[in-house]
Structures are given as structure tokens and as C-alpha cells.
């Protein structure tokens, strides 16, 4: 019946309606094609799909701090890569003790090109639903993944400087993006990471971050800041909260060629970069970053 609508009376009104109908059909087609592309995202060598949840098994887990673990999952095919591009998250679906299933987003920290396995850093919330299940997984246990869920599409060379501000387990999208940039020899973007934690014991992945900084001294630098430092002679990093002075001191200056990404507890993100009306929305740039004139800001 649809095409009959195109047969209208003579005159401009009919032509206008025809244009509207054709335009509507075209728009619907574009939406349909884009939706098809979005959901039918699987390539032969990738594990992630948006059409279904894919089972993967825990290969190993390492306790990094009292409440953070690194989990390495074996992909469904040892030649596969997970199938995300920086920067993205994936959904994990797990079975709860009551038999129901629940899912939460987590951010891969291994590179896009890693094959056979994929790594995650996961913080446990004692009263949480999914994070305690993730922490309780034993090697061989199965969960399911769906995705990817893109945050931003990183374009090499678009910015001269990428400044990343991470709080606690908010390091995950920052590490993913930093690894993407330093791992591409043709990308000359400089990455500066400011990593904030309560205490020195809470600083996860310090060895890995320091190793990346030593390997790529002209491309990657990292600054640590803690609220409560340990004995003075043991802490060489910054002390206190991230404020305008700290950002001005260590981050690349504001300008068209600087991009800032931030991820951390909501209070920290609001103070530094402005409030988010909800976790899905960016909100306006505010706080310290607005005060210092930054305009290219993304809240992961
Ligand atoms: C896009 C995206 C990517 C993410 N990537 C990661 C990642 O790589 N690693 C990671 O560890 N987490 C990540 N998270 C957070 C993760 O998805 C879960 O929200 C987190 O693991 C808590 O889930 P839960 O089911 O255990 O707790 P829920 O059942 O959802 O929450 C129960 C209680 O736990 C506590 N709680 C939960 N979340 C928080 C929080 N963020 N801050 C303070 N208290 C909290 C609160 O007391 C809350 O009432 C990401 C979130 C998003 C939106």
C-alpha cells in the first residue's frame, strides 16, 4: 500500500506531499541502514557482536589492590580480537546467585589489536550487584559480552595534545585511549595523564603506566596525585585534590589543539569539568576546565 500514497492530486501541494513522503522514505531507509550497520557490526575476526551476547571464559585474575582486580578473558576464538575501537566499553552479562541475569558496562584496557584475550580492570563495590560476581569468577568460569559501546571515535592527528584526568578505577578509558595513541607510530599526539587517588596504595597499574612513560618519553607522561601521601620520603608525586593549580601545572594548555578526557567519581568529574545531568549526558563544560578555558572536553 505504501507507494500509493505517492499518487496525489495535481499542484504544488501534491508535489510537496510527494517530496515529504519520498523524503520520509529516504530518511527511514538511512535510519534502517545505519541501524543495520550498528547492530550487524561483526567482522570475521572479532568476538563482540551487537546482535547477541557472546560467551567468553575467565582465563586469569590478579588482585591489584584490596578492591580492584585485573581480569583477563579468553576470547571464543584464540585468533580473534575483542573488536572495539578506542574508545569504547562493552557490556558484561552475568548470572546472579538468585538465577537472574544482570549486566553492567566495563572498559577494556588491552589494545584493540590484542588477539585471543582481553583485559579489564574492575573495582568491587561491596553492596554492588555485578562487580562482586566479577570478582568471584574463577578461571574457566563463563560470562557473556555484548558491544562495543563507543564513547568517542578517536581521530589520530586531530589534536596535538590529549590530556587525560582519571580518578581511581576511572583510569580504564584513559589507559585504553593512551595505549591506542602511543601504539600508533604514525600518530604524534602527546598524551599527558593526571591520575588521582586517595592513597598511594590505591594507585593501580603504576608499574604499567611508568613503563609506557619510559618507553614513549616524547609521547606519554604521567603525574600521580594522592589525597593522603605516605611517609614523605616515599612519595614523589603530587599531594591534594585536582584543582586549577594542579591542572595548570601539569596538563597541556587550553587551546584548539588540546583535547581533555576525564573519568572518575561523579563529584570529581563535576568539580573539574562540570556536572552531568545524567550518566548518559555530557552536560556543559564547567568547573576547573571552564575556568582555565578548555573547550574540547569529553566526560567518559
Ligand atoms: C561506560 C562505563 C564504563 C565502565 N567501565 C568500568 C571499568 O572499566 N571498571 C569498573 O570497575 N567499573 C566500570 N564501570 C562501572 C560499572 O559499570 C558498574 O557500575 C560498577 O561495577 C558497579 O556495578 P555493581 O553492579 O557492582 O553495583 P550496583 O548494583 O550498580 O550498585 C550498588 C551500589 O554499589 C555502589 N556503587 C556502584 N557504583 C558505584 C560508583 N561508580 N561509585 C560509588 N559507589 C558505587 C553504590 O553504593 C551503589 O548503591 C563503568 C561504567 C560505565 C557507565
UniProtKB/TrEMBL annotation:
What Gene3D superfamilies does its record include? Nucleotide-binding domain of ferredoxin-NADP reductase (FNR) module (3.40.50.80), Translation factors (2.40.30.10)
Transmembrane ranges, per UniProt, are: 20-39
Q: Which PROSITE patterns match?
A: FAD_FR
Q: What class of enzyme is it?
A: oxidoreductase
Where is this chain's protein located in or outside the cell?
Mitochondrion outer membrane
> Where is this protein primarily located?
mitochondrion
Q: Which cofactor does it need?
A: FAD
Q: Which GO terms describe its cellular component?
A: mitochondrial outer membrane
The FAD-binding FR-type domain covers 51-155
Enzyme Commission number: 1.6.2.2
Which residues are recorded as binding FAD? 104-106, 121, 123, 130-131, 172
Alphabetical keyword list: FAD, Flavoprotein, Membrane, NAD, Oxidoreductase, Transmembrane, Transmembrane helix
Pfam families linked to this entry:
FAD_binding_6, NAD_binding_1
Top-level taxon of the source organism: Eukaryota
Q: Which GO terms describe its molecular function?
A: cytochrome-b5 reductase activity, acting on NADH
The membrane topology noted for this protein in its Swiss-Prot or TrEMBL record is: Single-pass membrane protein
Family designation:
Belongs to the flavoprotein pyridine nucleotide cytochrome reductase family.
Output this protein's name. cytochrome-b5 reductase
Amino acid at each position: 500500500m505504501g507507494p500509493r500514497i505517492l499518487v496525489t492530486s495535481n499542484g504544488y501541494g501534491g508535489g510537496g506531499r510527494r517530496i515529504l513522503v519520498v523524503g520520509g522514505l529516504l530518511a527511514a531507509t538511512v535510519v534502517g541502514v545505519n541501524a543495520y550497520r550498528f547492530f550487524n557490526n561483526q567482522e570475521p575476526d572479532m568476538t563482540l557482536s551487537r546482535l547477541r551476547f557472546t560467551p567468553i571464559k575467565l582465563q586469569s585474575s590478579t588482585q591489584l589492590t584490596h578492591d580492584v582486580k585485573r581480569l583477563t578473558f579468553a576470547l571464543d576464538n584464540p585468533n580473534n580480537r575483542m573488536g572495539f575501537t578506542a574508545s569504547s566499553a562493552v557490556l558484561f552479562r552475568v548470572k546472579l546467585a538468585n538465577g537472574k541475569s544482570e549486566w553492567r558496562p566495563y572498559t577494556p584496557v588491552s589494545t584493540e589489536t590484542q588477539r585471543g584475550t582481553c583485559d579489564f580492570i574492575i573495582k568491587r563495590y561491596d553492596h554492588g550487584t555485578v562487580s562482586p560476581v566479577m570478582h568471584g569468577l574463577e578461571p574457566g568460569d563463563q560470562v557473556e559480552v555484548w558491544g562495543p559501546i563507543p564513547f568517542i571515535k578517536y581521530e589520530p592527528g586531530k589534536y596535538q595534545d590529549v590530556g587525560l584526568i582519571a580518578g581511581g578505577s576511572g583510569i580504564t578509558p584513559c589507559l585504553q585511549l593512551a595505549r591506542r595513541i602511543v601504539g600508533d607510530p604514525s600518530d604524534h599526539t602527546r598524551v599527558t595523564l593526571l591520575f588521582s587517588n586517595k592513597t598511594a596504595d590505591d594507585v593501580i597499574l603504576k608499574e604499567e603506566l611508568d613503563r609506557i612513560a619510559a618507553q614513549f618519553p616524547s609521547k606519554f607522561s604521567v603525574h600521580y596525585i594522592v589525597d593522603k601521601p605516605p611517609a614523605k620520603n616515599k612519595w614523589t608525586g603530587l599531594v591534594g585534590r585536582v584543582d586549577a593549580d594542579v591542572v595548570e601545572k601539569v596538563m597541556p594548555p587550553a587551546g584548539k589543539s588540546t583535547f581533555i578526557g576525564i573519568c572518575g567519581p561523579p563529584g570529581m568529574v563535576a568539580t573539574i569539568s562540570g556536572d552531568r545531568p545524567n550518566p548518559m549526558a555530557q552536560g556543559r563544560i564547567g568547573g576547573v576546565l571552564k575556568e582555565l578555558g578548555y573547550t574540547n572536553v569529553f566526560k567518559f
